[in-house]
Write a structure and sequence with these properties.
This protein is an all-alpha fold. The chain is built from 13 helices and two strands, in the order αααααααααααααββ. Helices cover 71% and strands 3% of the residues. It has a two-stranded antiparallel ribbon with strand order 1-2. The longest helix is centred in the middle third of the chain and has 31 residues.
Length: 317
Amino acid sequence: MSLQIEHASNERRAVLGSIEPQVEKLLTAHLQSRKLWLPSDLLDEDERADLRARARDLSPSTRASLALNLLTEEGLPHFHRLLSNYLGQDSVWSRWNNIWTAEEDRHGCVLRDYARDSGVFDMRALEQQQYEYIEAGFDPDWGHDPYKLLAYTSLQERATQYAHANLARIAAPVEPRLQKILARVAGDESRHYAFYRDAFALVLEADPERAIAAAWAVMPRMAMPGHQMPGFAALTDVARLAGVYGPADYCRIVSELLSCWGIAAVRGLSSNSERLRQRLLALPERLLRLSDILADRRRSISFEFPFLPDGPVHAKA
């Protein structure tokens, strides 16, 4: 690591330390707003037969989207490691990491329990895909910049909230139990999003030059954590066409965060940072154009997934 990069890294760590009192307040507010639940609160073994009967009516595209949501949640080990490495230990940031990890762990557990009890997947094939995802790792090229981590997690938490909430809405008429589970998970993701969003806002206020650069490095194209997983592109296509999550949703998330962070009002930047700020403000329009192009290009697909052995999944807009 060059002396210049090491100096910049030390300065970022100093900023994280300086805002710890405000972050402590964010953590306290989070704990006061949550209602802790456990997977066994949402699933009853005595209802397994009824669960399987209802789950048979879930469409193949709903099942494929559920698999994507479940696999995304099972990537938790990657993110606990990243938060620990980027935000450090023995501070409010490490306490948040442990609390967040404990809350997130329930998401993969309850979705996995539902999948097993309802019989919607070939579980061994799904477990194989999960194994390959974890084994592949997730090491984004962020240069150990904690600002990029906070920008990314703001985007990622909102994206997972969208995906769970939209799938809950789609599943509700057929499978109310799945709707209840997904809605509960989406509620957690909303609170996690608020923490990361507000933490990055504190960083932006304290160190606008580097925060703007971090946001620009992450926001134009957010690599989802499962992108190295076999079949990931096909799963995301199904989710987009099913109305679960897609580029149009990401465009809305970017617009929301730019507004929440007050990017339009940031002043006093260097000429280079001002150029990046202007690019950030123009980003939603660019993302919307790309979303429209993709929607016009692929309006129907047919894929086979090993965890859905009953035949190909057909999805269309």
